[in-house]
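Q: Protein A?
A:
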Amino acid sequence: MSLPVGQLVYTSFPEVGFKTLASPDIPPDIQQVFLEQIVHEFWDAYNPPPTDYRAAYFYQVNEHQSLFGWLYNDLSDDLGRSHIPHFASYYWEGSLAIAHLDFILTCLEIGPITIIERLKRPTPLDKIIIPDFCNYPPARRGVRLSASVRKNSHHCLQQHQLLALFVPHETNESVNTLLQLPPEHSVQQLSPVILELPPTPTPPTITQSVEHLLQELMAKPIGIQGVVLVSPEGQLITAPMGMDENSALIAAGTMLYLGKNTIDELNLPEIEQISIRAQEGHMILTNLNFGAYLLVKAGKVLSGLLEGEINRCVKKLQEQLQSSGSATTVSDSLVPSVLATQPAIDEVIAEFSDAFDEIESAPDRSDDSEVRYRGRRTNL
């Protein structure tokens, strides 16, 4: 099998600055997806990765269009700026089958066929062909993928889910909007000590009363756009209302991760509530105890009104969870079985956390507070 692919590159060029290059066969909308879903998501200019960092990624735009490639952290550009991202990406059109997936994953392990000279002025890119069995000398090193990454990618494809895979070289952790692969996954096979750690608390039983309370909160005419219950490990306990599963997983996992880091840094017993505010609206995560958190997404609404409704709902939910006790998790009909591989919170954030650059854990805020949203400081 060989694979004809187009090329995309994003990096800094002399006398030009940061620029996206693409071979002529790549549609403009795909170039925009490359910028928004890969470059902007996986590179944080305010918190760049270490020198010599590299990672591999695979992003399915839809069932017939895919982007895959590598991210390298280069040293400097002609203006003396350090930590320069170099995204080398391939674009492939075709219906993804297991054979294609394995071929692409092998290519990611080997590395790019060619690499553009970043210290020279940009030149046009041409369409290339990845040869049979990926039999070529790489221009730069690729990223090793574990058997777990391949296995779970196969499972995701078989479930007809679009892949969004990101694997840094340093830890070989996979950050996937559909499948989250814990870094302990491969360690468990080598070190039985991991198995002696306390088990993850069982999520609470979700009764019809709990679901009814969530529906009531969702129906409040105050701009609430989505609600869901999640576990302390970032798993979905209920089916999201008003949010797709991927968005709920990313938001909950990111906020839980930041909350955990705040607890560790400040030596706090626990955090009751995490709130993020931006011009677009609010994202609030509230600890219900009993092994559950309430995640609420809202648009532009008065903070006091929103938090008042959330607090009233939280008290009712706590009463229901206390009466039902901790038992089994929600049925498979509510949350797809693919979510069973959702990891602990330490690996959920990874490259998606640039959307939450600053966070305040206090429930009350003044209207003139400042937050960072996607790298931009915004006065609210």
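Q: Protein B?
A:
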Amino acid sequence: MDQQYLVSSDDRERLQHFLSRRQLKDRVVELLKEVKESHDLKRGEVTTSQSATYEALVEALATALANKWVEPDNLTSILDDAETAGRQHICIFKVPEEAADAVIGMLRSPRTLNPETARLSDFWSIPLEPYSRILRDDDAGIVVKTVAPRYYWVEDRRQPSEDRIEITKERERERSAIIFKFDKAVHLLECRVPTREKNPHADTSKSVYQFLAEITASEYVGNAGEQAQTLLGLVGHFDLANAFQKIIENRDDFELHKDTPENQDLKTSMSHRASADDAKDIRDYDEWVYENGFARTSIKGKWKREDDSILVHMHDESVKLGKQVSRQVSRIFFPRPCSDTDIAYVVERVRAHF
């Protein structure tokens, strides 16, 4: 079977899940409209309705691919773009100027570099081990995608009777696409880890960083001087917490929904009970008295733009890696689908508060 075409019902179901999870309806409809216009198709040959279900859109894609009205590369390009953003944990690191060449060298030569063009099945098949593809390498920077299996436990608790509680744990295995983006202009390395499909809100800075460390230890290792070094060993702390105080003071384009102030006498957490869409700025409540004299490890809120806003959770936490080893990790979590442009906007707004 040619994996570039949606032959089996399983393939179509997996693509449907991929498109739905990443909310790609608009992109797919746009592609199908281009197909219809360029081949002068009659009404009904492929659906281009914005109200079409994902199942109907996948059937239309299957028809377009089978008739060669659209090239597989046109579709895989959309899928690649979707994985550079989406719902993501963004671990950000500063790259010292003296380490920039080594970082670029590692990203250009992962252990299992795949130079081939992506096939459709690559976007849902769980690999046995990680493999990487370079998505972009130019004067602005380099973007590499590493696809890897991810394992974690999901706990289920049920109470069949008043006197009995049953707790079961099931090990999940799923495909995870990690994006490594190095920006040469600002010397920042973004490591974008997608949320887990099962119980995504259970992820923490520690679980995200540990998974990221496993991937970099497997794929990105080189020599720094006379010693072998991993990618994460070359980069430094972004120090996101250093921006928190100025962000807290910013009422122009930031709306605060959750705060974790602490000092030598007090440690607390305050958040709005409503959903993110209905939440109000907690700085407007009399109970919020933490503008000055407090540090914090995380804040949550919205960066507001002229026509929309971007919801983010920002964390700067110490991750314990061993009995006496820890690392400070700066992580920005995007709980809703977003674009690469959205991520760049938020990172730039954060940098403006240093």
